[in-house]
Automatic annotation (TrEMBL), chain A:
Keywords: Cell membrane, Membrane, Transmembrane, Transmembrane helix, Transport. GO terms for cellular component: plasma membrane. Residues 71-291 form the ABC transmembrane type-1 domain. It comes from Dictyoglomus turgidum. This is Sugar ABC transporter permease. The lineage of its organism: Bacteria, Pseudomonadati, Dictyoglomota, Dictyoglomia, Dictyoglomales.
């Protein structure tokens, strides 16, 4: 039997894909399905026995005040930190795009340094910087007449402090993506708009921004996924030497990822932890669908 | 005849060499405990001594940071790949026993009567489960009051005079608290460093009935005596402002010389000598409401995994860690207290007034009765923060905490 050329190509593609599909299945798909299965059981991590309890873990979420707090914190964190990060990254990218190559490359490297620095080390340094009585941030704010912000010790300021760190860290990453995208925009379009008498503001709104749309959608998707899973910064910045509960004070910085960790490895309730993990999965899925629906606009000149 | 002898000796030497090989074959024991610099150093030196005394045995030691210790331990035990010997708080030992994760101390190694005669009763109280003892007590920690001598002298107080009552502690803390304008520059007490040192101490000192009753799974700190203990702590912060959450947040104020007084586990002495050698301090049993000496104490246990391939060697190592010789090293090098009764009267270990005070305090210890570790601590930490950060009424916050803690225990013991 002779196969058609296209069928052959597809077959070869699958043959080459087979090893990666197998490894993906083992390390990603199987754990996801297994975790979903576990979410219907009561399972103490120390025990080898699991008891089936149906949807009780999911029902429990509705009565769990810490889960609700973690959900609100995670949404608050994402809704504020994502747009601010992308906005600042875009502004910096636009500024760098207008500079000469040498300066542009130097500044791009400087802005990218936080991205490649260890997040744990960075979080420790920021924790020290946010220290209310002797930390440099309050010292600087003191010159501006702003006093008494408790940052990580204050239930109102602890989460904003972590947002600041997250924004600072991620700006460089999204700036590089925006910059690459800006450099791809054909100069002819901008020159044509200039000849037509468009101001720099109009050139940005009607030419640059529409052409950046695919990049914006991409950045928005990955930054929201990243924000909804925020863990390390919160854990490092809010935990102490055995005496401070991570995610505090009073759960003001507890995010869903941190709560999953706490339930799984401190309370040892693996079944309940996986049910929270699936809520996070759903949340990310819904957010990604919504933003693709509302932000993706095919644009051609 | 010569030939027969020659064959006999050759055979004998061959058999002996085989036997020798089997004895000298390496047995590896994996030992885990949470990291505390002075204790890690002692374990390393004990391993050297133990392996020299027991050739053919190797001990692989991992000192794991406290924050990730339980994560690593429970996941590895759950996967059946855990260590042979490890350390856990005695308060959660029953959970490991119920899940068949640890082995009981074999009676041929140490019979029940010997265990009872050897160790301080409160250190083995919770390790007696189903008619057997399951762990060797270690990391014995009476909670003590640490006093910065210089800061007390600067405030016109005598550091050699210990506060006996809560009232005296409050006055001492108020006199040593300093402000520049409305900004705190020196705390009287380092409460926010590790608040649990304070609420555990005051509650266990003051509540006469069970703080946690293992039979009814009810807590006893939502009682007039319990409210009084929490109220005293609340007043120290909210009424007398002897510490502030925004002053040196998450820093060890006492070690930095920025807090005059601190309640801590006795082992803090070893840490303090290492990280802040210039601070001169005195150690006393924490003051009580009435002046009658009492403090809270905790201890951990060395246990042997039920999955170990070498239970005899593992128990040999675990018992070596709590041998008289080893316990002396714990005391001298870390400030941890011994769990053996005989060492309590060993004056050679009580080289200064601080050690004398700690040794004396062991006799007045009321052991922690909690039936869980981090989850129970988190509930009381929430209670503390509700009171001092949100100004929630003490009784209301304590009642809420009691309700949550009882729910936690009933869940843990649910079949």
């Amino acid at each position: 039997m002779r196969l058609k050329y296209n069928t052959k190509l597809i077959l070869w593609a699958y043959i080459f894909l087979f090893p990666s599909l197998v490894s993906l299945g083992i390390v990603i798909l199987y754990p996801i399905l297994d975790a979903f299965y576990i979410s219907f059981f009561r399972w103490n991590l120390l025990s080898f026995e699991k008891s089936f309890i149906g949807l009780k873990n999911y029902e429990g979420l509705f009565q769990d005040s810490i889960f609700k707090k973690a959900l609100i914190n995670t949404l608050y964190f994402s809704v504020i930190s994502v747009p601010v990060t992308l906005f600042i990254a875009l502004i910096i990218a636009l500024m760098l795009n207008s500079l000469s190559t040498g300066i542009k490359n130097t500044l791009r490297t400087i802005y990218f340094i936080p991205v490649i620095t260890s997040i744990v080390a960075v979080s420790f340094v920021w924790r020290w910087m946010f220290e209310p009585s002797y930390g440099p941030i309050n010292h600087i704010l003191g010159f501006l007449g702003i006093h008494g912000i408790g940052w990580l010790s204050d239930t109102k300021w602890a989460l904003p402090a972590i947002m600041i760190v997250n924004i600072w860290r991620n700006i460089g990453f999204y700036m590089v993506i925006f910059l690459a995208s800006l450099q791809m925009i054909p100069k002819e379009f901008l020159e044509a708009a200039l000849i037509d008498g468009a101001t720099s503001y109009k050139r940005f709104i009607y030419v640059v921004l529409p052409l950046l749309n695919p990049t914006v959608v991409f950045c928005l998707a990955i930054s929201i996924i990243d924000a909804l899973q925020i863990f390390t910064q919160v854990y490092v910045m809010t935990s102490g030497s055995g005496g401070i509960v991570p995610g505090g004070p009073l759960y003001s910085t507890t995010t869903i990822a941190l709560y999953i960790y706490k339930i799984a490895f401190r309370d040892l309730e693996m079944g309940y932890a996986t049910s929270v993990a699936f809520v996070l999965f759903l949340l990310i899925f819904i957010f990604t669908l919504i933003q693709i629906k509302f932000t993706e606009r095919p644009f051609e000149y | 005849m010569r030939r027969i002898f020659a064959v006999f000796f050759i055979s004998l030497s061959f058999i002996l060499s085989c036997v020798n090989v089997s004895f000298s074959a390496n047995i590896t024991i994996v030992h885990w405990q949470h990291h505390f610099e002075p204790r890690a150093k002692v374990v390393e030196s004990l391993i050297k001594e133990f392996t020299q005394e027991n050739p053919g045995i190797e001990v692989k030691f991992e000192s794991i940071p406290y924050d990730t210790f339980f994560d690593k331990l429970v996941t590895s035990l759950s996967a059946g790949t855990g260590p042979d010997v490890f350390q856990i708080p005695v308060n959660i030992l029953y959970q490991f026993v119920n899940q068949n994760l640890v082995l009981p101390i074999p009676s041929d190694l140490m019979p029940l009567s010997e265990i009872r005669n050897t160790f301080i009763p409160w250190t083995i109280r919770m390790s007696y489960i189903n008619g057997k003892y399951w762990g060797f007590p270690t990391d014995v920690q009476p909670f003590m009051l640490f006093v910065n001598n210089k800061l007390l002298e600067d405030a016109g107080l005598n550091p050699a005079k210990a506060p006996k009552t809560w009232k005296e502690l409050e006055e001492m803390a108020r006199k040593t608290t300093k402000f520049t304008g409305d900004k705190m520059v020196q705390a009287g007490l380092n409460v926010f460093g590790n608040a649990y040192h304070y609420y555990w101490t005051f509650v266990y000192q003051n509540v006469t009935k069970s703080v946690v009753d293992p039979k009814t799974l009810k807590v006893g700190y939502n009682s007039p005596e319990g409210y009084e203990a929490w109220q005293f702590l609340a007043d120290l912060i909210l009424k007398y402002h002897v510490d502030d959450p925004t002053f040196l947040t998450n820093q060890d104020k006492f070690a930095l010389g920025k807090a005059a007084l601190d309640i801590h586990e006795a082992v803090y002495k070893g840490n303090l000598d290492m990280i802040a050698p210039n601070i001169k301090y005195n150690v006393y049993i924490p003051p009580t409401k009435t002046g009658k000496p009492s403090t809270v104490g905790t201890n951990w246990v060395y246990v042997v995994s039920s999955k170990t391939k070498n239970p005899n060697v593992a128990f040999k190592w675990a018992s070596y860690l709590t041998s008289e010789k080893a316990e002396k090293e714990w005391v001298i090098k870390t400030g941890s207290m011994p769990s053996r009764k005989t060492l309590l009267d060993d004056v050679s270990l009580q080289k200064d007034s601080n050690m004398i005070a700690i040794f004396k305090a062991i006799k007045f210890v009321r052991p922690l009765e909690d039936l869980d570790w981090d989850p129970a601590w988190e509930i009381r930490e929430e209670c503390f923060q509700n009171i001092v950060l949100k100004n929630i009424d003490v009784k209301k916050a304590v009642d809420l905490s009691a309700q949550k803690e009882e729910a936690l225990y009933s869940k843990k013991f649910q079949k």
